[in-house]
Design brief:
alpha/beta, 434 Repressor (Amino-terminal Domain), six-stranded parallel beta sheet, Rossmann fold, 329 residues, elongated, six-stranded mixed beta sheet
Length: 329
């Protein structure tokens, strides 16, 4: 930490002057130029002292809430993992992979931090905090602000999709999403996608709760739930559907095809995530792109900052992008 003496020497003023300026002494008579120089030197020395730290060789644990089989059913988390591993390779950082159930084994590793990928309860976060103070959560955020997180702003993201539908003239919009629970069975996780679809849609009278369907975030549930919506609503089926993820959208489009309901002529479909297969299905899927690999990369960078001394928690929101393809006008 830079001392008052260091600042005084760099700013070419007395130690007493620096002390009084930094303490906002109102009785001190000093020019704005001198005051500015002292503050700038103080900031510069503080910044340089942080930047000059060298990261020691690091070893991180990547803790997944998904098994490898579950990851294959949801490529979103696979993409995040690729981003983490690629960034670790670039930084020549070692990593070990574990499931949450393996935390006892993680305790045996000599690690400098944990990247927790997925949705973890507060109790689970506290358990990880018993292993290391350096924790970054990806795709979720702890109520404890001392831990870092990388996620997306679902409220802004959903508004992009809903505003697009409104601009295209849709007055009846549906949503097919999923429900998830914490792995420790401590409770159900609130689906922020559904929350903000309802908040936006009900305020503008373009979403009816009858058009909201919930299952799991899988192709099969997208298929089954769209079949159910078609049966229940017939000609009153909404003209647009936002899907909780791309896998649900893929299943829903298959159901629409089987019922000879044209996409996008009769029903527009927009997914979420932009997984790699989205551009290869028919029709190609419009989707709200989440930069998942960047989420993984940023998580590693945040953890490196922690290792070299940052103590203040950071919450990073990664922006989203509406990708317009053939499944919507």
């Amino acid at each position: 930490m830079a001392t008052i003496k260091d600042i005084a020497e760099k700013a070419n003023v007395s130690i007493a002057t620096v002390s009084r300026v930094l303490n906002y002494d109102g009785t001190l008579s000093v020019t704005d130029e001198t005051r500015k120089r002292i503050f700038e030197v103080a900031e510069l020395l503080s910044y340089k002292r942080r930047a000059d730290r060298k990261a020691a060789p690091s070893k991180f644990a990547i803790v997944h809430w998904y098994t490898e089989k579950e990851e294959l059913e949801d490529l979103y988390y696979m993409s995040i993992r690729f981003g983490i591993e690629t960034r670790c390779q670039q930084l020549e950082t070692q990593w070990v992979k574990y499931l949450y159930d393996d935390l006892e084994e993680v305790k045996q590793e000599k690690i400098q931090g944990i990247i927790a990928v997925g949705k973890f309860s507060e109790a689970q976060v506290r358990t990880m905090a018993g292993i290391t103070d350096n924790i970054v959560i990806v795709d979720h955020s702890s109520e404890d602000e001392s831990f870092d997180s990388v996620t997306i702003d679902f409220e802004k993201a959903i508004k992009k999709v809903m505003n697009y539908f409104v601009e295209k003239g849709h007055t009846s919009i549906g949503y097919i999403g999923g429900r998830e629970s914490y792995k420790d069975q401590s409770g159900e996780i609130e689906d922020l996608r559904e929350k903000y679809v309802l908040a936006f849609g009900l305020s503008r009278n373009i979403v009816d709760e009858r058009f909201i369907y919930r299952g799991t975030f899988t192709v099969n549930d997208g298929y089954q739930l769209m079949k159910k919506a078609i049966t229940e609503h017939g000609e009153e089926l909404p003209t647009a559907f936002f899907m909780g993820n791309d896998l649900i959208a893929i299943g829903a489009i298959r159901a629409l095809h089987e019922e000879n309901i044209a996409v996008p002529e009769r029903v527009n479909v927009i997914g979420l995530n932009d997984i790699s297969v989205s551009k290869y299905i028919y029709p190609t899927l419009s989707t709200l792109k989440v930069h998942t690999e960047m989420m993984g990369e940023v998580a590693v960078d945040l953890l490196m900052e922690r290792v070299v001394g940052r103590k203040v928690g950071k919450k990073v929101f990664i922006s989203t992008e509406l990708i317009k393809r053939e499944s919507s006008f």
